[in-house]
Design brief:
Number of helices: 22
Strand content: 5-15%
Radius of gyration: 38 Å
Shape: elongated
Number of strands: 15
Structural class: alpha+beta
Helix content: 25-40%
Length: 700
Amino acid sequence: MAGIEGAMASGARIWLADKNGDGSLAVFALSELLRDPGFGPMAGPRLRVPQVGLLATVPEDQQLRALDLERHVREVETGYPTPSGKGLVKPQYDPAVTTLAQREQAKADELAAQGWPRVSRATVRRWRARYHADGVWGLVVRRRGSTRLERADPRVVDALRALLPEEALRSRSRGWKKRMRRETQWWLDTRHGEQSVEVPAMSTFNKLLDAVEKSLGLQGTVAQRRARAARPTPPFKPTLALRPGEIVMMDSSPLDALVVLDDGVVGRLELTTAVDVAVRGLWGVLRPTGTKLTDVAVLLAQMMTPVVMRPGWDAALSMAASVVPHERLTAVDERLKDAAARPVIVPETVVVDQGKVFISPATRAACESLGISLQPVPPANGPAKGHVERGFGSIGTEFCQWLPGFTGSRVSERGSRVEQERLWTVSELQVLWEEFLVHWHHRPREGLRHPLMPKKALTPNQMWAALLPVAGYVPVPLSADDFVELLPVRWQPITDAGVRFDYRTYDDPCLNGHRGQDSGVASEKGLWEVHYNPYDPVRIWVRLPEGFREVAWIHATSVGLPFTHHVWEHICKVVERTGSREEHEAALVLALDGFLKRAARKEKLSTAERRVVAKSRASGAVPVPAGELNVLDVPAPSFGLAGVYAVPDLDDDTVPDAYDGGDEGEDIFGPRDDELEAGRSAGGCHILGDTEAEEDPWLP
């Protein structure tokens, strides 16, 4: 330093001279110099606290050797063997008269004279580097052989690190290691040229493949590999929601129970559920395998709609008997007067997976019309919507395992004669499911804790009641047009014949004036927005400038019985087209009417036809109110073809024996309704209320 200049308006300045002595100077502001991270005093090695935890993992003789080396390193660098800097300095280690290289050589000669083997100046220099990097722990002798990954060609390791996660994400079946060896060679040839890099021998490659899989965490089953490959980078944090509807997670999964669909056909239903993170509320729709867009619409409507108490339900399930402020809510929303105790929320954000139904444009449009943000998670990433995934497990333990025909969550847990049990019909299961959804909100959930009562697990109803004063309640009644908005959408032209799709023609005088015209929607090439109901194909809704208008199928009066898309798809497959479009549609109508009449008379059907009828009857009809009626006033969807098959015929030989009302049937389905009523009158309520002591009503 050449000098300090302090009498400056901008602050003190430092004058630095070049160490080579050539006379050049550099001027710095003192504030800039102090802020520079590289500026600091030059001194000996930093005082390091011994890593006691790490040193405890090695033998005592190695600990003493490392501490002894620390004293030698300090003496080389500072002249003093101890951090205190007191005592006499040996002439050969005095920094004032010796260079660092001389002190390193002197220390090597001293230790060699004391009997230390193979000690040189380079050895002392390595000790200093290790001490500066890791402290005393760096001076511990750690003999470790190279790992398999370190010995292998890094290009081969890079190829495996690229191929294994790709296979896991694609959910490919686990093949032989010989196949992976060939794919690795192809990968190397593509990026490095033919025969530039050779894959190791088979035995060596197999061990290397296992080592790379272990380093990536991709061992185990295909499902485990896929989950680990899709897992985001840690650290993870729990999903937090502070108000009802803030985050709702939605997913579909097969129900872990067999049911009697129709005419003895045994199958499984698909369950589409939604779980609110804030209150752990549960809503669900049962349908045959293959969730449709209409099911998402029904699920959203369920969440925003109070459920009315059903005949036969216990009074303890009503909202008036719960902890929810029923009177205050009824003053705001009269629909809650006779409602069951279940939260009514308006979703703000809906988290879904990559299923085609959930990420379809129709679902996005429906959520947008209701002001709902749709948030898809990355592919194969179950933990991102863990609340709804865990909900399926709770449904299995609290609902499915008590049903006849319980299949278990995996094949290894399934009984050998599940199909032979006295199974329930879809109608019976639907009635029980609706009541179970209300029961769900009366049972404490371990994940629900109030900050003022952290030791008590709350029920969804209790948490909803606690959040209502903070979040508030705003009723959102759905009109007919709102429900139509939730239905699937497609874009079609309006021609002179009307609207045509799926070999069906829809026409009405309301389309006059728009035939052959452009809709004005440039992104859809001037096509018109058409909403349809897969469970009720006899009518569609077209968005015209004046709003939605219902348009009927031109052959609706030619078909004597209602039908669903399952039946229509079957008819389209079996009827071959031999004429014009109009003739083919007429032939389809005749075949459809004949098929429905044969099914209604319970004539003998083929196996394929029986399954089609069973799926159609189990689908149920999703009602859409006409005119300006409120969708909330429409009864709940009933299963069966418009009630034709809603109730099983007790005289039908295809109905299992359990339905004959005998004693064995009572063991499976429980006591009759009249016996239940008598039991309630004699013994009181059997439902756990929110204000009662916590019990497990689902366990024996």
